[in-house]
Write a structure and sequence with these properties.
heterodimer; A: 83 residues; mainly beta; B: 169 residues; mainly alpha; flat; guanyl-nucleotide exchange factor activity (chain A); cytoplasm (chain A)
């Protein structure tokens, strides 16, 4: 988690396959672990058989990247690149 | 609830006034002499032709009275001519009201065709934007791999026994 702080990341969240929050840093809230895990599970059903996708949620001033790997869902909150 | 059959006596009204128990239809099994039905059924024209004519006249008069009372004579009504200034005022008021309603941009498509994202301006610009940068994508992949590796290294350190036997002699 510490390595990701250098690239404009404002928060990180880890959840297990049942939505239990394994760890949270920054502006991420542990209350969203269930939502993040459920979202990753549903989106993986869009293309069954392919690798788990990386989900990007964009708003005007922030981004949320979600990726599930071997049951562990990782959510990274970022501010948009200024450069 | 209604009652089909009961042992109670029928409480017909004494005075002959109309209440909830008065019959709407004539009793079909009664033996009372029914004037109108018999004269129509048996077609006894000779003696009832005169009465029939007067009956027709009365029915016709009833219809005429009913029509006259319910007729609306449009031609005889007062004509409401609209003054020019009043007309202009009304046009302005109605236009204001119509413009106050939020406009829904409907294209020439037929009404029942589904229009998605019609309220998002510049949809093509949003949809054609780059979905995710390659750097972000690679960062997510490597970070999630590290997380999985870290979770796999979680161990339980056995320091003390959980179950301790007490020395009870």
């Amino acid at each position: 988690m510490e390595g990701a702080h250098s690239t404009g990341v404002s928060g990180v969240l880890c959840a297990d396959h049942k939505g239990l929050c394994l760890g949270v840093r920054g502006k991420a809230s542990n209350a969203s672990s269930g939502t993040v895990a459920a979202l990753a599970e549903r989106v993986a059903m869009l293309e069954p058989g392919s690798l788990d996708p990386v989900i990007l949620l964009e708003s005007d001033n922030s981004q949320c990247l979600i990726h599930r790997n071997s049951g562990i869902t990782l959510a990274v909150y970022k501010s948009p690149e200024t450069s | 609830m209604g009652c089909c059959c009961s042992t109670e006596q029928e409480n017909l009204s004494q005075d002959g006034e109309v209440n909830e128990r008065t019959r709407l239809l004539n009793d079909p099994v009664s033996n009372t002499y029914q004037v109108t039905a018999s004269s129509n059924d048996y077609g006894n024209h000779y003696s009832t032709s005169a009465t029939k004519k007067s009956d027709d006249h009365s029915v016709l008069n009833q219809i005429l009275q009913h029509t006259a009372s319910s007729i609306i004579d449009v031609g005889a009504l007062e004509c409401h001519t609209l003054e020019q200034h009043e007309y202009i005022e009304r046009v302005r008021t109605y236009n204001q009201r119509v413009n106050a309603i939020p406009q829904v941009k409907t294209s020439n498509k037929r009404h029942h065709e589904v229009q998605l994202l019609y309220d998002t301006p510049a949809t093509e610009r949003v949809l054609s934007a780059q979905p995710i940068s390659l750097a972000d994508f690679n960062m997510m992949i490597t970070a999630s791999q590290k997380v999985v590796a870290a979770v796999a290294q979680i161990r339980v350190e056995h320091k003390e026994d959980l179950v301790v036997p007490f020395g009870i002699p």
